[in-house]
Each structure stands twice: as C-alpha cells, then as structure tokens.
Backbone:
RNA sequence: GCCUACCUAGCUUAAUUGGUAGAGCAUCCGCCUUGUAAGCGGAAGGUUAUAGGUUCGAAUCCUAUGGUUGGCUCCA
C-alpha cells in the first residue's frame, strides 16, 4: 500500500477532528485512523446529521488552505494527561500505553495524541480529492461494554479523478446488490408478516436453489457421503449435552413448552440451530467398528438462529437457512486424507460456479480450548498439509480457531468488498467427547473418533446472494432458472415456437413468449431478466427448421435446432 | 442489541418545506401484427408502514411500535 496516501488520509482524520472542535467545542475525541480508501474519527457529545457533514467538510477546506504544518513531539505521560485533561477517551488511551512517553501532534490549533506518521503540511492535500461520506455509531475501542461514539467516515485520494472513480465504483457495486437483483429477477422476498431474516423463495429462486441442491448432493453421493434426514426441532436436552444451550443461548430462538407448567422441566423443545447433534445420534445408534469409518453423513439441513436484528442483510445474513451440511467421523490416521479430499472437492465445486477469487483462512488453536496438544497438532498439520498439497494461498488466523478445533474458512467477496464466509471445514474434538462417541479399533479397544464439520457452500441462502453479486445476476447457464426463451415474431409462428420449445425442453429450462408485444420489447424483457439464450423464430426460421440465436446480448446467427441443441449440451 | 438515516401504488419515485397525494414501469382493456433492448391510447391501483398526539388543516412536526439502510459489536 502507498504510504503517502496513508499519511494524507491519517492527516485528514486530524483535520476533520480540528474542524469538529471548531464547530462543536464541547466534542470529546476518540480515535481517528486511516482505513482503506479513507479515514474516520470517533466523537462523543456531538449530535449531527448529514447536513452538518457538509459544514464540517467546508471547515476542513478552510483549515487545509491555511497551510498548517504537522509537528510531532514526544512528551511525558503526565504532561500528556494535563493536555488532555478534559478528554476522557484520550486519558483512557494514555492509560493503556505502556511506555512513559507518548507522541503528540500539533496541527494548527489542534493537538492530538498520535504516533503518526503524518504529512508535513496540509498543502500536500488535494482539496478536491476527499469527501466525508457517512455517519455511523461505533463502540469506543470496539467493545460493546463501552459507550457508543459518533463515527464520521471520509474517503480520500491523491487526485480528483481517483475520488470520482471510487464514488462511481460504489454506484456500480450497488447495481450488483443481490437484493436489487433478487427483486428484479423475481427470485425471493422477505415479508414483514413472516419476519426479518426469513426468506420466501419465489418459483424462479426456488428453481435456482433446487438446482444447486441437486448438484451438490450428487457430488457428495459420488464422494462417499450418505444422506440422512433429521427433524427441525428436538428436546432441549440434546443441545444441553452438546453444550450449545450453554454457550450460544443468546443466538437461539426461545424454547417451546407444551404447557406452562413444563417451563422448568426438561420436556421443552427447541428449533435447531445446527444439525451436528442429530448426526451424532445416528452415529451412536449402534456399536461402530474401525472397519465402518470414515462415516460421512450429509443433509441439507435447515437451521434457525436468532441473529441480532442489526446484523441481518438480504440473503447473506439471515435467521433461517439451509446448510449443505455434513459430518465426517474418522480416526486420527484418516484425518489427513479426509481433509485433502475434502479440499479437493471444495475447489471442484467452487469452480463449477465460476468463482475464481476467494480468500482462504486457517484458524489455529485459541487460548481457551479442549483437546490435547497432540491432537491439535495432528489437526492443524492435516489442515495445513491439505492446503499446501493443493497449492492454495492462505492466511493464518492465529488463535482464531473455535475452542473445539481448528478450521479452514473460505470467504468470497461481495460487490462492496465485504467478505462472506461460505465454505467452512472444522475439526472437532469436543462433541465426540461430550456425546461419548466411540468405535472399536483393530485390537478390540474403544477409541474416540474425530469429527469434521463441513459445509462447502455454507448456507444456500448466503451462497446464492454471493453468487448473484459475483456474476451481477448473469448466472452460469446451468443454474439459470430460465435458460432459454423462444420468441415467435408473429402469431403465425406460435405453433412452431411450441415445437421448438418442446424439442429443447428435455435438456433446457425453456419458456415461450406469447405476449402480444413487439419483438423489441420482448427481447428487452428477456435481457433484463438475464435469460442466457433468446431464440427468435419467424417465417424464415420455420421454413428450414432453425432458430435465430441471441446469447448474452449478442446475435449468434441462425442455426438448425439440432445444431443449437448439440452446442448447448456441450456448454452444460 | 447499539448508533445513523429512512419507510408514499407491485417496483422506481414526485409533492414549491403544514394547504386538493402526481408520474413512469408493471397490471387490466382496446388498437397495432411485429426481424433483435421499451409501438399507441385508455382504465384501475393510496387510510402516505402502524398507533397515538400537536394543528382550522399533517405524507410533511412530535411520541411510541414495526420494518429497512449503512456502520459498530456479534456470526457456533
């Protein structure tokens, strides 16, 4: 990253704070770093809206034009405490600093606690290349226990052109928003009557979802997975044993009681937040031998989690979703090869959806954990080994593993550069312990299996959301809900159009446009609906059993029906 | 959950700042009968999210509730 622009952004953050101090002398200051594309600063004791943003921006322009210089000074902590005596957040930051000296910056009339670096003089800033963009709330030092401050975000670049390009990119990205595409293509809805975060799939969306489900299951079956089906609810005790009720109560829907008097008893039910304990029950239904494992159970399990209202977002963060879930029960010796073939399968599947860019993370042991170091070593090395054998780039999230085991997450970016976790592969030493799972080894002794949780698409809902954004609605042919639209030019060709559609219908999801509208309009509608193939048929085509092919907005000429069919089959 | 902004017809939106809720698309009905991205005309569609309040008068101001947005925290 360009260090110069980072300095400019960081300095703008100070200048913004300066402007805020001028306009709102009572303001208290939090922190103000540079970030990707810009900067922010947190304030307390100010109440502002979007109009005030312009005022602040104007004041910033004035300050910059005064050509103020940024001067660093190192002072004793006690001295700093005096300077910031009326700034409680700064005092707290000073308290957190371990050294007895701190660095401060003067810029004009503004003094801030800051280790820098900064530009030398505000004239290095291009007046036309920055903009305050939005106001948001943010907890001081990022902790929910601290007060919430008002954060002002800005973007900044070296040139006006870069700023304009950036703002244009954001506009572009909004057009790729899966919520807008879902509305336009008639894929899904969220109804206020049903509830936030609960998706209702319309016919086209349901075809899309089902197509993906059928594909993913066929892959799993081909790779040694067996299907299982489990209920949506269970007695509370199941999740008591698994420990979920203890650790994750906050994000679960409340318990169901058959009668008021049962409230304090075990006989209450709950809707499942995950499938694992059910699969464990099936594993435990009989004594397992080392000859039986690895056992791989898969289920498109629909689970419900009470996500906080502020986190819900279209299809990508919801309260009810379908996981392409599976659990692998294996021995320590089998873990290595299981993980490798899993990763192999993952890559095959992600490529099938024409994803090429994603970020892989390996999360290693956290401080609080279960399981011996020996078994953590085996698991972490197996995950690492699988990634390296596949020659995949990955980052290590040190200490970010779940308490029960290490994991690999694969995240896909959406159009606004937000990352969404789709694939997750997690090794688990905990549940086998809690449910006392065993198999009999080749010397007749009981041994603990290792459990691997894995969802390769993650949640079908989220996956489809990301898929729509990634392709801007232009889905790969094989998942498009309507793959082909036949448009007869006039009424005389409607019989021929039906004949064409019938011929194609065994290999393609095909519809006919029989509306009484102009050809241009019907083509436009089909394009807007992102239908991959548009076949126009008129008198000329009818004469020689052909169709006029339009694919992704391009005219591909007239071909015989059988030729077209052959070509499409190849593409599929 | 917290902070910010917001909620007008199925969708996208207008309403001169408190004075008759108006359009485009979609829908329905006609006319046109069509050669690669919107043919023409008409009709219907609204308790302005919901419930209160202020006012002679509320889409507009206030309060509460629900929902949405962008962040923060969270994401087994």
Residues:
């Amino acid at each position: 990253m360009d260090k110069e622009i980072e300095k400019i952004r960081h300095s703008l953050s100070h200048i913004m704070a300066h402007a805020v101090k001028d306009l709102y002398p009572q303001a208290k200051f939090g922190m103000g770093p540079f970030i990707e594309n810009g900067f922010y600063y947190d304030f307390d004791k100010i109440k502002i809206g979007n109009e005030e943003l312009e005022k602040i921006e104007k004041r910033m322009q004035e300050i910059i034009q005064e050509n103020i210089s940024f001067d660093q000074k190192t002072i004793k902590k006690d001295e700093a405490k005096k300077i910031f005596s009326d700034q409680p957040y700064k005092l707290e930051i000073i308290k957190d600093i371990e050294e007895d000296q701190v660095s401060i910056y003067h810029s004009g009339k503004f003094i801030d606690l800051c280790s820098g670096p900064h530009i030398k003089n505000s004239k290095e800033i291009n007046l036309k290349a920055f903009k305050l963009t939005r106001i948001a709330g943010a907890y001081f030092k990022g902790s929910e226990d601290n007060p919430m401050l008002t954060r002002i975000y800005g973007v900044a670049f070296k040139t006006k052109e870069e700023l304009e390009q950036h703002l244009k990119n954001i506009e572009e990205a909004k057009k790729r928003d899966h919520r807008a595409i879902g509305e336009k293509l008639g894929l899904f809805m969220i109804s206020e009557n049903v509830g936030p975060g609960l998706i209702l799939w319309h016919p086209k969306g349901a075809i899309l979802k089902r197509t993906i489900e059928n594909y993913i299951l066929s892959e799993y079956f081909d790779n040694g997975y067996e299907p299982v089906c489990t209920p949506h609810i269970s007695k509370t005790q199941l999740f008591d044993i698994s420990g979920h009720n203890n650790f994750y109560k906050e994000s679960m829907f409340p318990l169901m009681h058959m009668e008021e008097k049962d409230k304090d008893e075990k006989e209450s039910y709950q809707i499942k937040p995950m499938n694992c304990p059910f699969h464990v029950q099936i594993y435990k239904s009989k004594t397992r031998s080392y000859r039986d494992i690895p056992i791989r159970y898969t289920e498109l399990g629909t689970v419900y989690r009470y996500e906080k209202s502020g986190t819900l977002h279209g299809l990508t963060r919801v309260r009810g979703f379908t996981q392409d879930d599976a659990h692998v029960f294996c021995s320590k010796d089998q873990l290595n090869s299981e993980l490798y073939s899993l990763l192999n399968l993952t890559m095959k599947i992600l490529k099938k959806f024409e994803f090429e860019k994603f970020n892989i993370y390996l999360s290693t042991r956290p401080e609080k954990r279960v399981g011996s170091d020996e078994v953590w070593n085996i698991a972490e090395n197996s995950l690492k080994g699988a990634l390296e054998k596949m020659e995949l780039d990955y980052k290590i999230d040190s200490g970010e593993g779940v308490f029960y085991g290490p994991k690999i997450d694969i995240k896909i970016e959406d159009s606004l550069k937000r990352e969404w976790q789709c694939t997750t592969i997690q090794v688990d030493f905990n549940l086998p312990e809690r449910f006392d799972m065993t198999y009999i080894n080749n010397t007749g002794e009981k041994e603990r299996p290792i459990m691997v949780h894995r969802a390769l698409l993650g949640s079908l809902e989220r996956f489809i959301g990301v898929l729509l954004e990634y392709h801007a609605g232009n889905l790969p042919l094989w998942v498009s809900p309507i793959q082909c639209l036949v448009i007869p030019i006039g009424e005389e060709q409607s019989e021929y159009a039906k004949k064409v559609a019938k011929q194609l219908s065994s290999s393609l999801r095909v519809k006919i446009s029989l509306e009484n509208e102009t050809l241009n309009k019907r083509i436009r509608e089909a394009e807007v609906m992102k239908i991959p193939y548009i076949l126009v048929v008129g008198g000329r085509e009818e004469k020689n059993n052909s169709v006029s092919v339009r694919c992704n907005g391009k005219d591909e000429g007239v071909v015989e029906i059988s030729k077209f069919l052959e070509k499409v089959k190849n593409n599929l």
User: Anything to note?
Assistant: Chain A has a mean pLDDT of 92. The longest strand of chain A covers residues 320-330. Chain A has three domains: 3-159, 181-257+268-470, 482-571.
